[in-house]
Amino acid sequence: MIKNTPIYFYIAASIMSVLAMVIENEWLLLLFKPMIIPALLIYYYGSEKKYLSIVLLGVLLIYFISDAFTLVDLNGMEVYTMVLDFIPYLLLVKVVLEDSLKIGYDKASLVMSGIGYVGLMLVMYYMVSSLNPETSEYAIAVVVYGVILAVYVCASLYNYLAIGYDFTMYIMIGACFGLIADVLYIIANMIFYVKALTYIEFVFQIISYFYIVAYFIKRDLNALEHQELYVK
Q1: How far is the C-alpha of 124 from the C-alpha of 146, rounded, in Å?
Q2: Which of 5, 66, 69, 167 is the Cys-Cys partner for 219 at CB 3.0 to 4.6 Å?
Q3: Where are the beta strands (DSSP E) in 61-211?
Q4: What is the Cα–Cα distance from 46 to 5, expressed in whole angstroms?
């Protein structure tokens, strides 16, 4: 019960943050949104693990700063938020690809993840071509962002298909939720604005935080470096 207390705080803070967004209560949002990342950090710190992951700590810190930026209503803040959110993806891609190298070659998984990558590139092409005139100058940034995100998602998919362990499932879910959140973010901020999309984007984003933390916990417990996790 005590061990899971931070998760209850995370869930409560997330629900109250979404509610604050819907009713447009800035004070309520300022109160609860900054609690989401610290609750997950406390949960991670109290979990069973061999060591603290510097990568995860960096990811959570950057996401905390990014969430803080979204609380500041200033023009052009979307660009800074995208730049900040790009850094965690680079860190996560590094870790996920390290897993892929340790897992080894699996043809069927590679084919499926390759198909997924092509599909994501087509989606990105459609989104870039749909940017409105005011945001078309960010097309190159969206392409770079999209390529890294696609690698993250497809490498996570490859790992899950190859060995099917719970930690690979967690990062795959986290990657997919992050993908959906970022697609909705670009649509709402660079193509056409629909307020409901910002609520949905936020929900997917905070859920992805949980699965990223769960991935690092389970990854450590499963000890990926052990020979039995390699694809034969």
Answers
A1: 6
A2: 167
A3: none
A4: 10
